[in-house]
Amino acid sequence: MPSQLPNRAGVSLKPEYFADVLNTDSSKTIGSGLWFEVHPENYMTCGGPRLRGLMDIAEQYAISLHGVSASLGGPDLVPDEYLAQLKSLIARVDPVSISEHAVWSRFEGRYYTELLPLPRTAEALTSLVNGIDHMQNAIGRQILLENPANYLPLISEMDEPDFLVQVAKKTGCGLLIDVSNIFVSANNCGIDASSYIKSVPAELVGEIHIAGFDPDPRLGKRLLIDSHGSAVAEPVWQLLSIALQHYGSKPVLVERDANLPDFKVLLAERDRADAMIEIDESNMRYVHA
Amino acid sequence: MSTLDGYMTALVSILDGGDKAALADYCEANTDLEISAVYRNGFIKTCVKVLKSNYPVVMSLVGEDYFFNLARLFVQKYPPRQGSLTGYGLEFPQEIEDCINQHHLPYLADIAYLDRAWVECYFATDGPSLSGDDINKLEGDAVSLTELPLSLAPWAQIVKTQFDVADLWTTLKHQGQLNSNVNVAPDNQTILVWRKEGAINLRQLTTGEQNFLAAVCRRETLGTSAQEALEADPEFDLTHYFAAFLQQGILQKEQG
Known about the structure:
The complex is a heterodimer. Chain A is 38% helix and 19% strand. By secondary structure, chain A is of the alpha/beta class. In chain A, helix 5 runs parallel beside helix 6 (160-171). Chain B is elongated, with a radius of gyration of 24 Å. Chain B has a domain at 126-256: Outer Surface Protein A, domain 3, CATH 3.90.930. Helix content of chain B is 51%, strand content 12%. Chain B starts with a helix and ends with a strand. In chain B, the strands form two sheets. In chain B, strands 2-3-4 form a three-stranded antiparallel β-sheet, covered by helices on one side. Chain B is of the alpha+beta class.
């Protein structure tokens, strides 16, 4: 499995939380198996306080790099410049896991900032496999691939779990199952969330995400948006329970990218997720001492 | 064109503000294509959010609504090309300068250039600056200080403004709003922006300092830089200002 995250719960780390993390009594938080995930794009800088802060935290906690811009399923391979920046960041923070999304976001030299969906076709599968192969070869390690949140029902040749499992088997990557994305996709596109979760073999799953979502301002609950801007909703906690029952103990991340709450509030959500994971002390060996 | 290319072209057209109809060929029957607006809206929202983050004082000065309009037009003209958006919006100050007939704030571009300098200094590479110890070592090695080649550290920027905006920018940067009137008058200023110990600082340069640092930016020696400063300002106190630059950590020894 390409992830060496502990089977404990972690949280998204934003620069706004650096002082909280660095001022916290780390003997308690490290012992709790807490780990952090960041978007590498926010740290692909030449230097400066933000990068320094992440490097300081990485000396004490396990870090996961969760990319949002590689555009693995896009028409062009991941740009060399991006890969060079990613490799530089990997060398600086020594992440225990690297993940990306099963989407595309670059087209004809432009970056569209959105996690754009791929139709689940043989052609898209080949494009995604090529993108993952290129990235894994470039960075010299396996990645985890996250299922997207879907808003549009694209004409497809296979369902999403089948599509992702085939990609994983062809590339050797693992899967990052975002339970919230499954909930959002189920709401928006009419799939069965429980069946989706149970269709993915446990051995391919290296990490689970949970996050908050919001109704579309115009269409309301008919279209749920994967906003990461609110607390995790109860139905998602229920799906997490199903996922952990099916997959066994896995690293779980509470994602939060907007409307950031007090760090203690986020840690409380994290502790709820952590309590749901069956703790296996043998998994703690990967946590930085 | 393959099916996948056709689909991507159709979705990108929507992201660029185009017609949604072409996407129907790639969606299940009776799909509400208005849903695709979520991608267009998300794209614009993300780009504007980054520009707000990188130009916070411009945003404070013109307000959310006007900034959104400025930013949206900018995104259409200069869409992102890199996955990392930390430095996005390099051309924004120039765009503001070029569209003065729309915002009628002649000093807005100066504010944007200072915002930009803050970002450039904040994310600049780390490294050692020239220190007093370095100077003492050179003296110990009997190297002529006047022959010491200098350069401006990457975490320092010099901004030339056409209005006296330094106080206005500082107030808005730290308070987010003005609690009293700040007069802004035409005045050519040269402002040093630099990072030290993680914090970004700003101050106006004297005529002598301007000329000294202009020479440093050309990677001249200490002797040449000092000579140019003295030609511009015969009262230029090299010992005082050089010590200040060393304390601020904005100089580096030019390599090679």
